[in-house]
Amino acid sequence: MAKSDSESDPLWQDLNWAIGQMLIMGWDGTEVTPQIRNLIEHHHLGSILLTAKNLKSAQQTASLVQELQTIAHQAGHPHPLLIALDQENGGVNSLFDEDYICQFPSAMGIAATGSQELAYKVAKATATEVSAVGVNLILGPVLDVLTNARHQPLGVRAVGDDPQEASQYGIAAMNGYKDAGVATCGKHFPSYGNLDFLGSSLDMPIITQTLEELSLSALVPFRNAIASGRLDGMFVGGVGLQNTGMNVMHACLSEQVVDDLLRNDLGFKGVAISECLEMESLIQEYGVKGGTVMAVEAGNDLVLLCRAHDVQLEAISGLKLGIDNGIISKERVFTSLKRVLRMKNSCTSWQKALNPPGLSLLSKIHPTHLALSQKAYEQSITVVRDKDGLLPLSQSLLQEEELLLLTPLVKPLPASAATKSMMEKSAAKNGAPNPHDRWVHQERGAIMSGEGVFRELGRSIARTRHGKLLHTSYTANGLRPVHENLINRASAIIIVTADAHRNGYQAGFTKHVAMMCQMLRATGQKKSLIVVAVSSPYDFVMDKSIGTYICTFDFTETAMASLVRALYGEFIPQGSMPGTMRKSKKVSKNRQRWLVESYNRDRDSQGLDELIKVLARSSTPSLPYLTTTSHSLELFNPSIEETHFVVRNSSTQALYGFVATYFVHGVGAIGAIFVDPSKRNVSIGRSLHSRALRVLLQKPGLKKLQLGLSFPGVFLGIPVDESGSSKSWFTNMGWDTQFPRRMTNLTIEDLSSWSAPEGLLGSIQRALISFDLIHGLDNAESVLTHVSTYASPDVVELYRFALARSLLDHKSCGVVRAKSTDGSILGTVIICTTGSQLATHVPSLHPVGDERVGGILAPIVPATAQTVLLLQGLAFMGVRQNKGHKSARSVLSWVSQGFDISCLLMRNESG
């Protein structure tokens, strides 16, 4: 193919000129500095990266870019400068001007609309606006696939977790950019969508997937975008790769990644742009000179150095030295030069560069783009659930009722530059960003304080409802008295979360408020709860205890304005969860079978403890995970056969799931089944359940199968959660959940202020019922006979264990008997204190903190006319014993919900 005139220009024979075209650089400041002028005039720098630190408004940006191009033109540059910008929309926009530049949803927000046509229109509008101020290269689209989407730092900057969907929306955006006359650059190759932050001293994230795994998922959008023929550039990331086929510290410095994978395997012929080489890890490992040479040698055509002038000069010196040393050949330099000049030919000219249309075009198109922005945001707002029909608020909340808004004090996030004035204050206050956030945003996006946006959100809600709004923030300090007071006042509560999976306090706070609302509703109070995720939609997508859950995908002012309109019914939200979450749950993954292994205490106990901790963080406080450990589930009882199984990652030793099975005197039981919340809906629970049943059904003499058991008393049966998801899961597994025996824990929270209900003692005396307390097995035959007559074998073993331990534990547990006048046993109950060994296996008895907990376990009373009175009497005796042992609170466990003991003023703690 013949060379173009620009490629054959004799000027390029001067390698200093050619080297200048292989660099893309930036600086801090909103005006041209002597340093950036020097780079353009004397080092022939051919490409500039603008960031939010350079840009104040559309007018200033147009003037700045025009000045930069004029400097290049007067310095004799044959071609205009490439002017690059991060303008992803959502929370990452380098240029914002509320009068001329429109805000649009993030990539995931656009995907939530379900419209690739809208993705194209938004991208074209975005590119048209930045092109009007002189930008000719957009660093986009983002083509990453969010493998394990909940825990990946890119979040809503990516389309989602489905490779084909990421391809479709990425190509639609790319076409929009191209049709607006702007060059494109896919990112972040080979993937920022499945990073592990392994805690190295240099904070370098690692891709651990094999090339085969990457090829089936992460590389699909890159491959498809390249095949379309319209992708001008590819941004090569600075991540590491560690797998059996590749051990790379920095992808952008690796010939295996750039030349072999990107060019040879995927066939990319455009401009490869390296990640910024001012990374601390790269500087420490190779130095800037060496790193720059390695980047070019690996196959990059443009080497990015973001802002430090001394580092930029060092990079230029390094390239010259690399050529002098023969490491970089002239042919290699000219290969990159040709690619860069072809990109420039496709997106700019001197006529265009020196005469950007600026505000005249922007003011003309702004009304149309505003309408498109509103349409895009309204179509992206997603109501994942509205189980209780709370939307719109105008119909579910009366004018005189109070509405409470609870918003997080989040760290500054990259966003539109709507609150530019906060950027420097925030940077000074918060210091350097953490490693995770540095890799999320690469420190190039503008910063917007969430607090300012949420204040305006509150004002907007108040204006819309024409009524009172209570608004306060929450932090990692949790639920404070001020929150409790406001919750008690309000009839409806809106909680905002922003990346709760990375800000764990938000998840805990939200769950706490949800439980508080549930308790208050049980007393007849109106407590409507709406949770709004304003960044990652995965905060509570799987937690159906949150009955009304809305996602906005970013918290720019424009997104929050659309949220308010959705809350008050000005439009009906039609958005949907992106990627695989949009698809039916009955996908082929449900047929996946996991390798189930026998539980090994030495190998798996630590992993099981970690799994239980994860469940505690993601579940309601009523479930017993907080006080459960691996020791709770192992009995070492000769009368009970126990066989437990795990699904685990044999490489990392992490447990993905666990099931405990027990067999006692003809009864087989599944005592607990745990699955990591991030691994649900992929058949781990189904695989464990199948293995557990297969083992139990093979037991000789099996008479009965049950869910839950008293010993160990981790779960009393199917956990009763607000969403009913556990019940439906077990129903699908074949269990009869229509008429289950409902067992519960009941609690007296403050024993010091408790007194016996009036008239109870008199009723017991008139019925001629007496009580005594026994310890040890010597005189326990009648008790065990009574229990075996009226209860299941596991309860018998619970009593046997309690009696056997009562003397060993210094009488910290024992059995209260209710007897008739002839000495026959009418009922029994176990009583114990915190110090009892029994508390290990009954988590509801385990103290949280220093408080002492008294236990009243498994009351056994046959169904007679005296049943309720006997149960009340046994509970009363247990409470009195607990109080005598200085317990702070008392728990009655393993009691049927059919029994009425409300006269003891106990409340339901869990199901």
How would you portray this structure in words?
This protein is α/β, with parallel strands linked by helices. It folds into 4 domains: 21-365, Glycoside hydrolase, family 3, N-terminal domain (TIM Barrel); 381-420 and 439-582, Rossmann fold (3-Layer(aba) Sandwich), CATH 3.40.50.280; 589-732, Gcn5-related N-acetyltransferase (GNAT) (Aminopeptidase); 743-910, Aminopeptidase. The protein is built from 30 helices and 33 strands. The strands form 7 sheets. It has an 8-stranded parallel beta sheet, sandwiched between helices. Helix 5 packs antiparallel against helix 15, helix 6 packs parallel to helix 8 (220-227) and helix 26 (760-766) packs across helix 30 (867-884). The N and C termini lie far apart (76 Å). InterPro entries: Acyl_CoA_acyltransferase, GH, Glyco_hydro_3_C_sf, Glyco_hydro_3_N, Glyco_hydro_3_N_sf, NagZ_Beta-hexosaminidase.
SSE map:
Elements: H1 15-20, E1 23-25, H2 34-42, E2 47-50, H3 58-74, E3 82-85, E4 87-89, E5 92-93, H4 107-113, H5 116-132, E6 137-138, H6 163-179, E7 183-189, E8 206-207, H7 211-216, H8 220-227, E9 233-236, E10 240-243, E11 246-248, H9 255-265, E12 271-274, H10 280-285, H11 288-298, E13 303-305, H12 309-324, H13 330-347, H14 350-354, H15 359-380, E14 382-386, H16 393-396, E15 403-408, E16 413-415, H17 421-430, H18 435-441, E17 446-448, H19 450-465, E18 469-474, H20 481-489, E19 492-497, H21 504-522, E20 528-533, E21 548-551, H22 557-567, E22 597-598, H23 601-618, E23 641-648, E24 655-664, E25 667-675, H24 684-697, E26 704-707, H25 725-732, E27 743-748, H26 760-766, E28 770-774, H27 781-790, H28 793-808, E29 813-819, E30 825-832, H29 838-841, E31 853-860, H30 867-884, E32 889-896, E33 907-910
